[in-house]
Amino acid sequence: xxxxxxxxxNVKKHSLLYIVLVSALGGFLFGFDSGVISGxxxxxxxxxxxxxxxxxxxxxxxxxxxxxxxxSVGWPSDRFGRRPTLMMMAILFLISAAGCAFAGSxxxxxxMRFIGGLAIGxxxxxxxxxxxxxxxxxxxxxxVAVNQLNIVFGILISYVSxxxxxxxxxAQGLLGSAxxxxxxxxxxxxxxxxxxMWRVMLGAECVPAVAFLLLLFTIPESPRWLxxxxxxxxxxxxxxxxxxxxxxxxxxxIEETLVVAARTGTVPLFQRRYAKxxxxxxxxxxxxxxxxxxxxxxxxxxxxxNFVGSQSALAxxxxxxxxxxxxxxxxxxxxxxxxxxxxxxxxSIAMTCMHFLVAWQLSLGSAANAVLAVGGIxxxxxxxxxxxGAVIWVFISEIFPNAVRAKGQAxxxxxxWFMCTLISWAFPAVAEQAGPYAFGFFGLMMLCQIxxxxxxxxxxxxxxxxxxxxxLGFTPSNVS
Length: 480
Known about the structure:
The protein is mostly helical. The protein has one domain (8-471): Up-down Bundle (Growth Hormone, Chain: A), CATH 1.20.1250.20. It contains 25 helices and no strands. It has helices at 3-23, 25-36, 41-48, 52-59, 61-72, 74-80, 82-101, 106-134, 140-171, 174-184, 193-203, 206-215, 223-228, 232-241, 247-257, 259-264, 275-290, 293-308, 310-338, 340-363, 370-385, 388-399, 405-434, 436-455, 465-471. It starts with a helix and ends in a 9-residue tail after the last helix.
């Protein structure tokens, strides 16, 4: 290869990486918004004197929004494009963060969290959809996993942000005084340091939301969407920009798989021919949430109090975020080598063991071994990150044909967020009554996921997403 060709190839690789990193900022905001509430939930409950039911409702208010956001974003994504839809999500993130920061009542806070949930749900659909449609086959899994990497990085940064905001506010240093003065500009009601603190924690999300919105103007539209919109020349340019090895061949394959959509107009998702990917998407999303991941993400400080005390609980959540990030990075490196199915099977076995370990320690009460209990929680986080956490968004994005990919992605994400809402809303009340049995339930669900992966889950690594359509039986001849 000549020097000029090598240089051009490197430029294309850098362009692709830049495009993926910018779009995956939606994943960062998804993670930050999901994790930041864990440092605020007890202060919010105390300030608004919420019962267990309304406390769970307020914390999960964002999750209710995610259900609607995930299920409804398919239409604007298909109608207006992936990039404009991501811009709309960035604006919703910004409105939510600013609104939460200056919420004066529980209903206002719940509505602002709901708006943030719309953005989380929408981003969870469109970001991986966009990345999978713009990525060359050999690195598709790895690049879609960048979104998951950014999600867990956002969760970690939210934990770190909460810790340092709390430390600064309670120490009444320069940062704490500045935050308190800023908050008081927007309210005449007297507020305690704790009341200002949680507002600053939630308002910090405005910074990445603005960055995401501005950077979206610098990346192109998805080539698959451009072909659907009749802009094949522009799609060819984008394929060349991201380093597709055979852009003309890929363009031809895209056009071939969209023949049915072009001939029949709007293609409904819920029909017999798409039963297989619908069932696969449902179960991969269902098991992702009944693993208990978001029960831990949203209530990590409360869980850790059982083992390390309230003073160390907030700092311990940083350990959760760090482990999550490290093992998601490892998953990023191996997902295209080992494949989706093997990672789910191995991770499920390990997660089962970790949940039963934590359940055992909780059953011991004051005699519990803190090292074993915390190790079990961190072990679960590690194995979730390297399996279910990394695989879900890649797998759902790959298994649906071009004609219904946005709708299929929306369905998978709807299932994910519906289950997340149920688990997160119910967890505080259930954990109080069931104690160790809650983690025992999560362990049993992971046993079920092992059976699902071994018996029904296909492997989707390698090739273009059009190749996967043929492997799963969606060829123009059999879907006409």
